[in-house]
């Protein structure tokens, strides 16, 4: 238990430093000093700065995954659940990037490393979407020929929207624009599958 707490503490310290100074400007020594742990302790848990950076990304993705699981378990009709899922996902990803300050620049520049870290998350997300879609098909709310392909398509559509959605917020768009943007995203994604 103490080992897990120490690891989580080091990840949190690293996240704060990465957010403040950027990944490229943060050294393992900076993390060791900020955590008041020795370099030896830091290297016991992480072989390199890249390892701790991936652990920070995985930690953020775990929080996002928990939020999406909570949506998937809510007692809502499938249509409403899918809307809440989409809103929660978009806003949670935006919040992760916003909360991490200068880390968002690294997120946009190093998509390949982020993609590697999020593979497990992607699999989980597809399963949540699939479950919502299956429920909608069973209740005759959604008209789908292949739930698996539809879940994959929706997942990749949401993934493709992430960067423009996040960048739109960082470019100083007003809140009303964000609300309109969210509404249009849901309209396009949801009403293309809703059984009229």
Properties at a glance:
Tetracycline Repressor, domain 2, 196 residues, single chain, mainly alpha, elongated
Explain how this protein is built.
The chain has one domain (54-191): Tetracycline Repressor, domain 2. Helices cover 80% and strands 0% of the residues. The protein contains 10 helices and no strands. It has helices at residues 2-21, 28-35, 39-45, 49-73, 78-99, 103-109, 111-117, 119-138, 147-170, 175-191. Helix 1 packs across helix 2, helix 4 runs antiparallel to helix 5 (78-99) and helix 9 (147-170) runs antiparallel to helix 10 (175-191). It is elongated, with a radius of gyration of 19 Å. The termini are far apart. The model has no long low-confidence stretch (mean pLDDT 81).
Secondary-structure map with pairings?
Layout lengths: L1 H20 L6 H8 L3 H7 L3 H25 L4 H22 L3 H7 L1 H7 L1 H20 L8 H24 L4 H17 L5
Helix pairs in contact: 1-2, 1-4, 4-5, 4-8, 5-8, 5-9, 8-9, 9-10
């Amino acid at each position: 238990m103490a080992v897990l707490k120490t690891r989580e503490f080091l990840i949190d310290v690293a996240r704060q430093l990465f957010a403040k100074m950027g990944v490229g400007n943060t050294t393992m020594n900076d993390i060791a000093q900020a955590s008041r742990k020795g370099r030896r302790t830091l290297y016991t848990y992480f072989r390199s700065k890249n390892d701790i950076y991936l652990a920070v990304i995985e930690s953020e993705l775990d929080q996002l995954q928990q939020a999406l699981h909570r949506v998937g378990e809510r007692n809502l009709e499938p249509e409403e659940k899918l809307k809440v899922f989409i809103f929660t996902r978009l806003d949670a990803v935006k919040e992760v990037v916003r909360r991490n300050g200068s880390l968002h620049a690294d997120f946009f520049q190093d998509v390949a490393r982020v993609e590697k870290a999020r593979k497990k998350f992607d699999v989980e997300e597809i399963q949540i979407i699939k479950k919502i879609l299956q429920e909608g098909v069973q209740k005759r709310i959604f008209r789908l020929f292949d739930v698996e392909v539809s879940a994959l398509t929706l997942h990749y559509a949401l993934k493709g929207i992430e960067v423009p959605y996040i960048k739109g917020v960082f470019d100083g768009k007003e809140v009303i624009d964000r609300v309109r943007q969210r509404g249009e995203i849901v309209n396009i994604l949801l009403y293309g599958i809703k059984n009229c």
